[in-house]
Write a structure and sequence with these properties.
Structural class: alpha+beta
Order of helices and strands: HEEHEHHEHEHHEEEHEHHEEEHHHHH
Number of helices: 15
Distance between the termini: 82 Å
Number of domains: 2
Radius of gyration: 29 Å
Oligomer: single chain
Keywords: Membrane, Transmembrane, Transmembrane helix
Number of strands: 12
Strand content: 5-15%
Shape: elongated
């Protein structure tokens, strides 16, 4: 149940009185202030902003587990409502033509859950303005099913005139509603407060295994999903929360005592019901977490990932991809590779610094056949030669020259 605690209490269905397995998982002394994140380095290509964790909803859209080492992925994330309103970045005829050409090249990303834009509308009625739980999801089905199961147990206990079982079922059902109310919340994403001009929101995500994900998006989406924080906005204030948890705990203990004094038939029925619910919730925990959330407001398109032979090639490919916009065109007159050093994607050595300068120059010149590995090897050899090191690391220069003292030719 601990895996389901947050998505379960994000829906108002958690207020329905019912039996829930392991209700103590919701009886916590404090509530989380945010959603769980994953370790990854994310940097703004043009903004320079950097974070070292991937937010929860962004990981649902493109899971880190899907990123293969030494691969480069390029995706475009946009708001569906923006497209419905006809929003565009340019009104020129040439832009419209290039957009139609690029749309034929780009397709919904199969690797990164491109089906979200199709399936969500069927189950929720379309993308809304916020991220909310799906109306039809594994947890919502289990919630409704457990409510009907609770009603069936209650009717059965009434028919066999087991008053203790009636009170026990009502008590534990009330406890689940109270605990659900205490933990009821909704996601709060970071929004832009001002409408000032900002740089493009393009980002580059890098994993420790050398996989790169180039994300073309607006500054609004960059703040919502990546740079900003994902907070939990609770319906009940912090001062009332401990009182509700205390009442829920008391009712739960009373219900446990009452269930131990029911007729053996009802004890067996309640026990089997809890075993069944435990198994179903355990199966639900094995399903993808994105099935519980309506992410239909976002549309993802992308290209097939490219597998590279080594990290240098992957970095060069990521630099090239980050220099273009979502339509595959070069963005701006001059492109900078500062984001590489900002995110520590390359070591800060003279050879790597010179390599980045060459890479930046080749990107701006539009060079397609530059051999990044050979260029780095050449620069590395030059650095070793300047340091006076042979391939085996032996100093070849005189002691005076090595330590920077002037040579005395007369000695």
């Amino acid at each position: 149940m601990s895996e389901h605690a947050q998505p379960l209490t994000a829906s108002r269905l958690c207020l329905i009185p019912r039996l829930i397995p392991a209700p103590q998982a919701l009886l916590k002394p404090c509530r989380p202030i945010g959603l769980p994140s994953k370790n990854a380095t994310i940097v703004g290509v043009y903004s320079g902003a950097m974070v070292t964790e991937l937010n929860y909803f962004a990981n649902l859209l493109h899971p880190l587990s899907d990123l293969v080492p030494l691969t480069v992925h390029v995706i475009n994330i946009s708001h569906k409502e923006d497209k419905k309103k006809g929003t565009s970045t340019s009104t020129s005829t040439s832009t419209s033509r290039s957009r139609s050409r690029s749309s034929s090249r780009r397709k919904p990303s199969r690797l990164f859950n491109g089906e979200l834009g199709q399936n969500n509308n069927a189950s929720t009625g379309g993308g809304g303005g916020d991220i909310v739980p799906r109306n039809v999801s594994p947890l919502s089905v289990l919630t409704i099913g457990s409510a009907f199961l609770t009603i069936g147990l209650l009717v059965w206990s009434i028919l066999i005139r087991d008053g203790v079982a009636v009170v026990a079922i009502l008590t534990i059902s009330a406890a689940s509603s109270i605990v659900g109310l205490a933990s009821l919340w909704e996601p709060k994403l970071t929004k832009r407060a001002l409408s000032s001009r900002v740089p493009p929101g393009d980002l580059v995500l890098r994993t420790r295994k050398g996989a790169f994900l180039v994300i073309h998006c607006s500054e609004e989406i960059a703040r919502e999903l990546y740079i900003g924080t994902e907070e939990c906005s609770y319906t009940i204030k912090s001062g009332v929360f401990p009182a509700l948890v205390g009442v829920g705990t008391l009712l739960l203990m009373i219900a446990v005592v009452l269930m131990g004094n029911c007729e053996w038939v009802m004890q067996l029925a309640i026990g089997v019901s809890y075993i069944l619910l435990n198994g179903l919730y355990w199966c639900a925990a094995l399903l993808p977490a994105r099935w519980h959330w309506n992410l239909g407001r976002y549309e993802i398109t992308g290209e097939d990932p490219r597998k590279l032979g080594n990290y240098t090639e992957a970095l060069w490919e990521a630099i090239r991809a980050a220099s273009k916009d979502e339509y595959g065109r070069k963005r701006g007159d001059r492109y900078s590779t500062d984001w590489v050093q900002t995110s520590s994607a390359a070591p800060k050595t003279p050879a790597w610094n010179n390599w980045l300068k060459e890479a930046e120059q080749h990107v701006n010149d539009g060079t397609e056949d530059w051999n990044a590995v050979e260029a780095w090897q050449k620069l590395q050899k030059e650095e070793e030669a300047e340091a006076g090191l042979s391939p085996m690391g032996i100093i070849r220069r005189t002691t005076e020259k090595a330590i920077g003292l002037p040579l005395n030719e007369n000695v």
